[in-house]
Amino acid sequence: MTARVWIWLLSLSVLWGGSFFFAKVALDELAPLSVVFGRVALAAVALNLALAFSAGSLFQRKVPWRSFFAMGMLNNIVPFALIFWGQTQIASGLASIINATTPLFTLVVAHFLTKDERIDAVKLSALLIGIGGVAVLMGPDVLNSSHGLWGQVACLGAALSYAFAGIYGRRFKTMGVAPLDAAAGQLTGSTMLILPIMLIVDQPWTLPAFPSATVWAALSGLALLSTAIAYVLYFRILSAAGATNLLLVTFLIPVTAILLGAAVLGEHLLPRHFAGMALIGLSLAAIDGRLLSFLHTAK
Length: 299
Hints:
This protein is mainly α. The protein has helices at residues 3-26, 32-53, 65-86, 92-99, 102-113, 121-138, 149-168, 171-174, 179-202, 213-246, 249-264, 271-288, 290-298. Helices cover 77% and strands 0% of the residues.
């Protein structure tokens, strides 16, 4: 990847790392699906305004709405709902670490759904190391559902959904859809899909009090920084570097999420959580191939 793409990748990791913090704050007063709706709706409004100022619009002929709805479901509604519900059970830092398994799921999904990203011996070894990392992360919680097991399982489900989204999203490059259009399209589609579900499940009119200014600030950060701007970067990186390189960002995300969770929310992680993250990081380095190439060159 070029230096510019690496800068985009690091910027995206900070924006998405902050999303776990913003979501945790918003979940203090709102139900998970309400937070999902607030996130995608505010971001969709922001990006459609950006399109309007650039003389663009989603509401014209030949707009791939079917693809936008599918991408919105895989990349927004399913993973956001699972992660936000998971964060009601576990710390935001742990949720971000589990999210780092996304490239491992992408490896498996790409093997079966693409012709150019097959699993070889190196990738298989990386996958096994990554599975070991997940096992270390979850530890004895597997035997005790009262210790956030289902929250961790939900975050793993979100990582799997992101993997499908990374593969599916490659079509936007071949369709000639610009990053801003792709980001605005998937978020607009997500808003249309999640609104009726949120109204039926959460019934927001039954809230005992109007959300506080803190929650609105968290939703704004979640929508504008961690979603609107982040997804423009997401589609730029996807177009420039491909799904596998793009999803390496998930290993960088926990750094921001853990620091914010510890500094502001008072969260604490166990040693096995860092050990699991280290194993997942090792597996991602093997998938990426740069570490092995460096070691081979060093010899």
